[in-house]
Amino acid sequence: MRKFTLTTLLYVYALISYAQQSNVNSANYEIGNGINFNFNDGDYQFNIFGFIKPSYFSGEEYIYNSNGQIKNINKQFKSQNSNLFFTGKAAKEKLGFTIQMDYSSSNPLVEAYISYFLNNKTTFHIGQMQVGHNNLEMTHNEDMLRFTNRGMLSQTYTQQGEEFGVFLESNFGSKFVINPMIALTSGDGRNSFGEDSRDSDKGGVKIGSRVNIFPFGNFSEGNGLTTVDIAREEELKAQFGFAYSKNFGASNMVGDGHGDFIIYDDLGNESYPDYSQLFFDVNLKYKGFSILLEYADSFASGLDNLYTDPNSFSILEPTQISEYLVLGESTGLQFGYFSKMNYSLDFMFEKFKPEFNNRESAVSREFCNKGIGISKYLEGNNLKFQISAFETKYKNFDELDDNKFFSLVALAQVRF
User: Are 192 and 163 in contact (CB under 8 A)?
Assistant: First the structure.
């Protein structure tokens, strides 16, 4: 880490020195947009920026079983995110690149991809990047969230949000805008082929797509990167989204990882079920008021002749797949008001209903999540203070009281 930081600083210093030697080259710093280098009158651009989110977390968990109640308390200070971006663009060659690192994570590489700009409206990407075929909140970066963390709907259907593959996105229209995206990925999430040669790819590929429709035109510049109306739109703006993905052979409970479980065919070979996810979302904004409505559903197919052991003794029962994959539907509502004084008051309500509600060993349980948040924005979204409180209830079995989880998170966010 120290060697990488030193190398980066030396490289930045060299770029600044070079940029200052010629009139056709320039370097500048702007809060939130980082350090920008321009060479050959803008033909070549390089940018370094990032954000940090130090936070305080306090949680209380109440678990009920036949022996009574168990109470767990967790309090901690941590760096929720420490993200650094390196981006570049060669205008004449129509090429660009993005590298994103999160140094708060044990696996810091978040994104690394190359872009080819077919024209002003269509771009082709290859590499590891944030995908568009998740729910809308999950397609936004961590520094653009309404609350201190993503909602339970996002956390239920996605573990990472980035995948390795090829991606194509475009947009059409001006007053009525359509923004389609399509992706073909490895189906194994980040670092898809594992840390070494022994951690091989599992299952097949994943196909995903999203279509966003803006019937009243695009949001104001930068206002489409978050579900909050930080631009206080003067006219009603709306985004209607539809996303779908199918993983042909999933070995992760939400289809964006690999190797979490093994299922076999009748010959003892590894064979995995197909896993599909479907999302609808609506985001409305008007004069500081904003609403996000989300619907999600997930289901499995290709379950015939699958076994839980390589000797084909234990066939996979129809409802047993819920012990491996997150199956069921969810609805979510987020709404709030962004004031002229740059304060935001926000509320959240989410519910999840599993497809098979009678299996105690399922990887997901029925839940209801409520949240409230207060945020203060400074310098746009570049400096932000947030505090959010959540109550989550998980449905229990055997007529026991529902398990409950209460959490309070406070953080400061700085974009540089």
Answer: yes
